[in-house]
Amino acid sequence: MEQNSSHSTRIPKSGSISFGRSKANCLIRSISVHGAALDIAGNEKIPDEFALTVIPDGDPRRCSVVWRKEKRIAVAFY
User: Fold this and answer.
1) CA 47 from centre of chain
2) CA 76/CA 42 separation, integer angstroms
3) Beta pairing, strands 61-69 & 22-31
4) Which residues are within 8 A (CB) of 27 and not within 5 positions of it... i.e. 6 or more apart?
């Protein structure tokens, strides 16, 4: 049975958000080829565009914020 690549993986993973010279840790709640849902650690001010890296083995992916709700944000990859 063929799987659709647009489905998201809902296994929490560690992530790193980088923007300018700053970095912030996050928990990736779900991720797909199109975007991800992230839980932000602490009171970090996260910009509307940044690079997301899945730790330990991911390459940085450029993304933009689609929505924000308390400590969770959703992003789209580009």
Assistant:
1) 12
2) 22
3) unpaired
4) 12, 13, 14, 15, 38, 39, 41
Which residue from 42, 35, 44 is spatially nearest to 6, judged by alpha carbons?
35
Between CA 57 and CA 53 the distance in angstroms is: 8
Measured CA to CA, the distance from residue 6 to residue 55 in angstroms comes to: 21
Length of the chain as a residue count: 78
Q: What is the pLDDT of residues 47-68, one digit of tens each?
A: 999 999 999 888 999 999 999 9
- Give the separation between CA 1 and CA 68, rounded to whole angstroms: 35
DSSP state of 44: -
CA distance 31 to 33: 7
Longest CA pairwise span in the chain (Å): 45
Model confidence at 6: pLDDT above 70: no
pTM value is: 0.84
